[in-house]
Specification:
The chain is of the alpha/beta class. It is built from 15 helices and 18 strands. The protein has an 8-stranded parallel β-barrel with strand order 1-2-5-9-10-11-12-13. Helix 6 runs parallel beside helix 7 (226-238) and helix 12 (322-333) runs parallel beside helix 15. The model has no long low-confidence stretch (mean pLDDT 94).
Length: 497
C-alpha cells in the first residue's frame, strides 16, 4: 500500500499515450510492456502517478477512445496479465496508476450496439441540428431509417445515460479496474453524458457548435443531471483503500460550473484547461491562474494544471519555442495543486506539422482538416536512426536525435534534466505543492508570485531583460541568467529568500 489518501492533491501525473510511448515487441506500436520497461525512467523523472490513455479493446477509429470492451486490453497493447504486471511494478516504484474511462460513448463494435440494444444508445426518428465535435452532423442513419447520436465520430455512438442498465454497467466497470489495483480514473468528456430533455435544437450559430460554450450551455454538454452520475460513483471510489480518485475532463462555461464537478460527493479534480490555452504573456497567465484559483476556493480542492495533452498542439510549438515552453513549465510546477504532464514534453518535443496526409489517423482530419496526430508521434528514446523503434506507426522526425532521452540524459542543461530538477525540488521544498499564492508587484510583461515560505517565482514574457531586486538564492532557472543577474526574455526562475 502506498499510503497517503490525499496524494492526488499535489501530485505530478504523467500522461502516457500507450501507442506512442514505448514498444516492447518491435511491431511499431507502443504497448503496456513498453510502459513497464520504462518505469525506471519515470521514477527517475520524479512523477507520482501515470495516467494511461485508453488501452482497451478497440477498432481504433479514434485512437482507442472508441471502446469495444471496457474490461479487456486490446491485443495491440498486450493482455490483462501485462496490465496487472505494470500496476504491480509501478506500485513497487511508488508510482500510482490512473486509467482513462470513456463513458460518453462506446465503439459501434461494442456488443450492445452490435446486438441492436438501441435503448442503451440515443436513437430518434429524425435528426436535430447538433454537430459533431469532429465536424459535420452528429447523427448517422441506420438501415431502418432511424438516426443515432454521435458527438464524435460515427463509429462512437453516444450512450443513453437515462437507461439504468448503462449506469449499472459503468459502476461495475469502475469496480473491475479498482479491483485490479488502479488508483484513479481520468473521465473522458465528463461533461457530456446527459443530454437536455427532448434533445432540442441548438439554433443558429456562427462557427462550430463545439466551440460555442461562452456563457450558455449547449444541450449536449454540462447538463445538471451529469452530477447525479458522479454522486453514484464517489461512494464506490471511497469504498476502496489508498485514496482512489477521479479527474474530470470537463469543458464548461464558468468557474462556478466547473466547481460543481469537484467536491466530497463527486469527483476529486477537474482539469484547468484555460491555463493550457493561455497566451505566453504575463497578463494572460495571471488572468487564467486567478480564475483557476477562484474555482479551487469554491470547492476547497486544489487546482489541476496542464500545459499539453493528446488533444492539443504541444506547448513548445504553441508558445513559440523551447525557451518559452521551459519557462511555462517552471511556472506551472510552482503553482498550488497538482500538475499533469504529457509524455515527451520533458524532452521538449515540438508538434510535428508535416506528417503525410495518408499517415494521419485522427478522425477529425477527414472531416475538418484539423489533426491531433502531430502531438502523438512516438517518443524518441535513442539518438540513433531508429530512435528505439522499429517502423513506428507515425514517423519520428530525423531532426529529433538531439531531443532523444539518450542524448539528453547526461546534459545538465537539457530539458529532461530541468524537469527532473524541478520535480525533485517540488517534492523537497515546503512552499511547493499545496498552499497559497501572493502576487508581487512587477513590470507589465513580468509575472511574479510568492509561495510561503519564501519561494519567489518570476516569469519574464517581455522582449527585454528585467532586473528585479528580490535577493535570495536562485534555486532553478529555465535558462541562463545574465551576468548582471537580470532575467532574460522567455525565462522563469525560482528564488529562495
Amino acid at each position: 500500500m502506498l499510503g497517503n489518501d490525499d496524494w492526488w492533491r499535489d501530485a505530478v501525473v504523467y500522461q502516457v499515450y500507450p501507442r506512442s510511448f514505448a514498444d516492447a515487441n518491435g511491431d511499431g506500436m507502443g504497448d503496456l510492456a513498453g510502459v513497464r520497461d520504462r518505469l525506471g525512467y519515470l521514477a527517475e523523472l520524479g512523477v507520482d502517478a501515470i495516467w494511461l490513455s485508453p488501452f482497451y479493446t478497440s477498432p481504433m477509429a479514434d485512437g482507442g477512445y472508441d471502446v469495444a470492451d471496457y474490461r479487456d486490453v486490446d491485443p495491440m497493447f498486450g493482455t490483462l496479465a501485462d496490465f496487472d504486471a505494470l500496476v504491480a511494478d509501478a506500485h513497487d516504484k511508488g508510482i500510482r496508476v490512473i486509467v482513462d474511462l470513456v463513458p460518453n460513448h462506446s465503439s459501434d463494435r461494442h456488443p450492445w450496439f452490435q446486438a441492436g440494444l438501441r435503448d442503451r444508445y440515443i436513437f430518434r426518428d429524425e435528426p436535430n441540428d447538433w454537430e459533431s465535435i469532429f465536424g459535420g452532423p452528429a447523427w448517422t442513419q441506420v438501415a431502418d431509417g432511424q438516426w443515432y447520436l454521435h458527438l464524435f465520430a460515427p463509429e462512437q455512438p453516444d450512450l443513453n445515460w437515462e437507461n439504468p442498465d448503462v449506469r449499472a454497467e459503468f459502476r461495475d466497470i469502475l469496480r473491475f479496474w479498482l479491483d485490479r489495483g488502479v488508483d484513479g480514473f481520468r473521465v473522458d468528456v465528463a461533461h457530456g453524458m446527459i443530454k437536455a430533455a427532448g434533445l432540442p435544437d441548438v439554433g443558429p450559430k456562427e462557427g462550430r457548435q463545439a466551440e460555442m460554450l461562452g456563457d450558455e450551455q449547449l444541450p449536449y454538454f454540462d447538463q445538471d443531471g451529469v452530477h447525479e452520475i458522479y454522486r453514484e460513483w464517489r461512494p464506490i471510489l471511497d469504498s476502496y483503500p489508498g485514496g482512489r480518485m477521479a479527474v474530470a475532463e470537463a469543458w464548461v462555461s464558468s468557474p462556478e460550473r466547473l466547481a460543481r464537478y469537484v467536491g466530497p460527493d463527486e469527483l476529486h479534480q477537474a482539469f484547468s484547461f484555460e491555463f493550457m490555452m493561455a497566451d505566453f504573456h504575463a497578463k494572460s497567465f495571471r488572468t487564467v491562474i486567478e480564475k483557476a484559483l477562484k474555482e479551487s476556493e469554491l470547492v476547497g480542492a486544489p487546482t489541476t494544471w496542464v500545459l499539453s495533452n493528446h488533444d492539443k498542439p504541444r506547448h513548445v510549438t504553441r508558445h513559440g519555442g523551447l525557451a518559452r515552453a521551459r519557462a511555462a513549465t517552471l511556472l506551472m510546477l510552482a503553482l498550488p495543486g497538482s500538475a499533469y504532464l504529457y509524455n515527451g514534453e520533458e524532452l521538449g518535443l515540438p508538434e510535428v506539422l508535416d506528417l503525410p496526409d495518408e499517415l494521419r489517423q485522427d478522425p477529425a482530419f477527414r472531416r475538418t482538416g484539423e489533426s491531433r496526430d502531430g502531438c502523438r508521434v512516438p517518443i524518441p528514446w535513442t539518438a540513433s536512426g531508429d530512435f528505439g523503434w522499429r517502423d513506428p506507426w507515425l514517423p519520428i522526425p530525423a531532426s529529433w536525435g538531439p531531443l532523444s532521452a539518450e542524448a539528453q540524459e547526461h546534459d545538465p542543461a537539457s530539458t529532461l534534466n530541468l524537469y527532473r530538477a524541478a520535480l525533485r525540488l517540488r517534492k523537497q521544498h515546503p512552499a511547493l505543492g499545496g498552499g497559497t499564492v501572493t502576487w508581487l508587484d512587477s513590470p507589465k510583461d513580468v509575472l511574479a508570485i510568492e509561495r510561503d515560505p519564501g519561494l519567489v517565482v518570476v516569469l519574464n514574457t517581455g522582449e527585454e531583460p528585467v532586473r528585479l531586486d528580490l535577493g535570495g538564492e536562485v534555486l532553478l532557472s529555465s535558462g541562463p541568467l545574465a551576468e548582471d543577474g537580470a532575467l532574460p526574455p522567455d525565462t522563469a526562475v525560482w528564488i529562495q529568500r
